[in-house]
Each structure stands twice: as C-alpha cells, then as structure tokens.
Amino acid sequence: MRRVTLTDIFLHPITQKYLKRSGVAHAIATAYHAYRLALQYGVNVDLATKAALLHDIGHYEWYSNGTWDYETYKQNDIHAIKGAERAHKLLIRLGEHPQHAKEIALAILLHTDSYLPEGELKRKPLQTIVKLADEADEEPGGKHHYRQIDDELALKKIQQLDRMVEQQLQRDALDQIS
Ligand SMILES: [Fe+2]
C-alpha cells in the first residue's frame, strides 16, 4: 500500500506555502486531470496524481512592484527544476519510497521544456501525463495560477482523489493476480 497519501502531501506546511503561491485550485485540477489521463495511458495513478499536485511548487514570486512581469518570468524561470527538488525533498521527508520520489521528481522536472535548450524531448508516459494534465487546466495569461478555492473544499477534493487512487491501485493489484 501507499506509504504517503495525497492528503499527507497536501497538508504539509511546505506544500501549503508553495501551492498558495502558484495556485491550489490549479494544482488540484491538474491532479484530477492526471488521474484521468493515467487511466487512459495505463500509468500508475498514485505517481501521476502526486506529480501533478506538486508540479508547480517550484514557482517563485513573479511580482515586481505589485504586478506580474511575465516577460522576465519567461526569461528567468526555472520552476520545474526547483519544483522537482522541493518535491523530492518533501516526499522523502514524508517517507515516500525513494524510487517513487525519484519518478515523481523527474515528471515534475520535465513537465515543461521552457527552460531547456531547443530540441525534441522524449518523455516517458508518466512525464507526458503531467505535462498534458497541466495544459488541460491552463488559462490564457497564466490566469489558472490565480483561480481561488476554499480551504475546506480543497481538502475534500484531495481526500476524494485519495480514495479514487486507492480503489484504482486495488483494481491494478487484482488485475495482476488474475
Ligand atoms: Fe501548472
């Protein structure tokens, strides 16, 4: 069974701090998209939802003098690198299996190629899913980062997704022995 749940991750102060910055509503919507896509692609739903929930925790404050400077952001952004590292540290601290922590971190690292040199990036299915899930929730001008969600509703959605993941992992386990 899972060593760490989405609820464990979501309620951790580190997650709260960085998700409040990049958008709790966006993180949760991306995690739900990742669940759906993981089923479609035959990828582990546990890894996909965790990577999607944490994919943007590497963002820094984009504001200068109260407004978001999108151009400077685009030139200097390394949120995927920071996010991968933060997520990995957090997951290990929570007791996640090291192999899973690594796979989740890599999916976060590669969810965007905006910071990489030009060229074709060959993603594994888990990495593709996190990218597609993120894009499925994107709004023009980065508006998805500002969409608000009530704390209580956010937690309920995370707990619901945990139950969906648990049920799917049980189905996967049954498939393996039949
Ligand atoms: Fe995102």
From TrEMBL:
Domain of life: Bacteria
Residue span(s) of domain HD: 23-139
Pfam entry (one): HD
InterPro entries: HD/PDEase_dom, HD_domain, HDIG_dom
SUPFAM superfamilies: HD-domain/PDEase-like
Name of the protein this chain belongs to: HD domain-containing protein
Organism of provenance: Anoxybacillus flavithermus
Phylogenetic classification of the source organism: Bacteria, Bacillati, Bacillota, Bacilli, Bacillales
